[in-house]
Amino acid sequence: MAIQLFCATFDVDACLEQVRECLEKGWTGMGFKTVQFEEAWKKYTGLKNAYFLNSATAGLNLAVDVLKEKYEWKDGDEVITTPNTFVSTNHAIALSNMKPIFADIDETLCLDPQDVARKITPKTRAIMFVGFGGNMGHYEQIVKLCSSKKLKLILDGAHIAGTRVNGMIPGGDADVVVYSFQAVKNLPTGDSGIICFRENELDETCRKKAWLGINKDTYARSVDSGGSYKWKYDVEYVGNKYNGNAIMAAIALAQLPHLDRDNAYRRQMSQWYREGFKVYSEKIRLVRIPENCESSHHLFQILVDDRDGLLSYLNEHEIYPGVHYIDNTEYKMYSYAKGSCPNAAYVSNHVLSLPLHMRLTYEDIQKVIANVINFVTKA
Fold first, then answer.
1. Are 88 and 60 in contact (CB under 8 A)?
2. Pairing mode, if any, of strands 293-294 and 164-165?
3. What is the 3-state secondary structure (H, E, C) of the chain?
4. How far apart are the first and last CA of the chain?
5. How far apart are CA 74 and CA 66, in angstroms?
6. How far apart are CA 90 and CA 99, in angstroms?
7. CA dist list (Å): 205 to 39, 65, 73, 108, 281
8. Residue 218 above 80 pLDDT?
């Protein structure tokens, strides 16, 4: 049987039970389960605010937009970011008419704090840190840098649901954290995300901007008025329709109790990979995870000389890995920074994400290991 890179696993009975409540109540849109999940996520993470959205991309867009408005950033101001990410991270900066400034990555595949420091200019307003693959890298150094330079910190947490640093869920020291619950993430739904601002005022602004600028959503207008529909509202912004819906939140509520258990198995699979590749360290290089980081292991990645050859070889043996990600400065719109991040460029050409999901067995992992070793030792 083919071994896929990703395959979501759902608690089907619990999901159906949660969704059934939505259908029986007749409320599948914004509110009801979205409110319940927001409260559950705040309790799980310890973060002060949480607003359920239709995607993490929406969250990133809102994060930059809300901070820009609040702190009166100008068009053309800069946000330091990573080229080693999905494009939505950097599109969020560009969408707000600000300029992504790319800093290089280190052996953790996260931002290199030293290169970040070198890239700070008088126009720098924030740092966008991506917890890549579940790994928080040298995040604590980035936090200190933001504090010393009076920069805002946006944590793109699309990969870090359940990650801990020094035993704690990270993000309380960021101005805003955005998580993804897209279909193949560690906490899967169909597609959804959540945004967590540190400041209550910014959370309130975000909620309006995510609902077309309307100052009171439909659910609140029904519930807060004691069951009668309060129809009148004001529009304070030109906003977007970024809100999440109760069906996705229902699935998220059903999946949340399994997150830590699932992540523990991801760490076990990753350990099997590490043990299997241990004596081949010259040909198969692994990503370093700092000791204080308990990664969610959304990804397990290796670096090899002939990545494309290995990918084709694995496909021939019905193993389907992936590549995360192409160095964003290779894309036309960000090509102004090409050549500025040599480590990211190297990783882009050599990294491979191996299958990692809850349906894999020990035997599956050993099959992947054996085929990787077969290729690199014959090359």
1. yes
2. antiparallel
3. CCEECCCCCCCHHHHHHHHHHHHHHCCCCCCCHHHHHHHHHHHHHCCCCCEEECCHHHHHHHHHHHHHHHHCCCCCCEEEECCCCCHHHHHHHHHCCCEEEECCECCCCCECHHHHHHHCCCCEEEEEEECHHHCCCCHHHHHHHHHHHCCEEEEEECCCCCCEECCECCCCCCCEEEEECCCCCCCCCCCCEEEEECCHHHHHHHHHHCECCECCCHHHHHHCCCCCCCCCCCECCCCCECECCHHHHHHHHHHHHHHHHHHHHHHHHHHHHHHHHHHHCCCCEECCCCCCEECCCCCEEEECCCHHHHHHHHHHCCEECECCCCCHHHCHHHHHHCCCCHHHHHHHHHEEEECCCCCCCHHHHHHHHHHHHHHHHHC
4. 26
5. 13
6. 9
7. 18, 10, 16, 34, 50
8. no
The CA–CA distances, whole Å, from 351 to 84, 171, 281, 300, 372 equal 11, 27, 14, 10, 13
pTM of the model: 0.96
Residue 180: per-residue pLDDT: 99
Structure token digits, residue 290: 């700092």
d(CA 318, CA 129): 35
Residue type present at position 239: G
- Identify whether the C-beta of residue 252 lies closer than 8 Å to the C-beta of residue 154: no
pLDDT in tens, 302-347: 999 999 999 999 999 999 999 999 999 999 999 999 999 999 999 9
User: What is the pairing mode between strands 51-53 and 78-81?
Assistant: unpaired
325: cis peptide before it, omega within 30°? yes
Tens of pLDDT, residues 102-150:
999 999 999 999 999 999 999 999 999 999 999 999 999 999 999 999 9
Report the distance separating Cα 278 and Cα 187, nearest Å. 30
Q: Taking 70 as the threshold, does the pLDDT of residue 255 lie above it?
A: yes
- Residues 281/312, Cβ–Cβ less than 8 Å: no
**Quick one: pLDDT at residue 229?**
55
Amino acid residing at 64: V
